[in-house]
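Late entry, evening session. Most of the bench is empty. Finally got around to the prediction I had been postponing all week. Sequence below, unchanged from the version circulated by S.P.
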Amino acid sequence: MPTIRELLSRGQSEIRFSDTARLDAELLLCSVMNTERASIYSRPELEIPCQEVDAYHSLVTKRAKGWPIAYLTGHKEFWSLDLQVNEDTLIPRPETECLVACALEKIPAGEAVRIIDPGTGTGAIAIAIARERPQCRMVATDISDGALAIAASNAKRHGLENICFIRSDWFSAIDYQDFDFIVCNPPYIRCNDKHLQQGDVRFEPVHALSAGDDGLHHIRQIIAQAPDYLTDNGWLLLEHGYDQGQDVRNLLACSGYSDTSTCRDFAGNERVTSAQYHA
């Protein structure tokens, strides 16, 4: 039977296209063995049973074809939370942590504010905010039943009971209209963007990524509909592309929003724009 050292060497060689080939090999082996990376470091000569070897080789083969690590392991970390992911969901990005951080700056602690996360996917945004603001009343929607199932499972795994999950195309199934905050990461990639055919995004649900010729289709829709669901002086926070900040600010201004500001992500790009609506 092959050892951990041998399997990692083979795996790294087979997925050498990846800039993180060694790390990828380690994560895949840990997933198969259901163990932590520290464990494989401490036992490099441990022999691995044939069944686990076969499972590992299957994952390595998929990774060599470009499959995202998160889909292969079924997990992705976000806001220090371990989240389940699958092919029904977009893989949470570090950039979206900027959206959560910007929202938390505005959401008062200890108050039962109402928040909605339209297009929740894995539930990453809703779960991160609900954990940090346990008194809030959170609604999370998605048009995908598969995504909602993953999101609800993630919330349950983290012991959160203050999130209501609803199947809805943005706000279409929402009856009440008194949210203090709308926090949303809509699709914003241009439909002809070459990056849709590269890297991890090739395997992700295109409806969660692409948004018309200019990438602003869903952002326009949300900006137009949000006032019907916000309280007076409620806030809309939107994640957007690195080069879309000015366009989003213009759209908000034309729709009557005020107090508009844009936050930059960890790479220094404009990533999240917030605005207040006065009824």
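Two things to note before I forget:
The chain has a mean pLDDT of 93.
The beta strands are 75-78, 81-84, 114-118, 137-142, 163-167, 179-184, 230-239, 258-264, 270-277.
Will write this up properly tomorrow.
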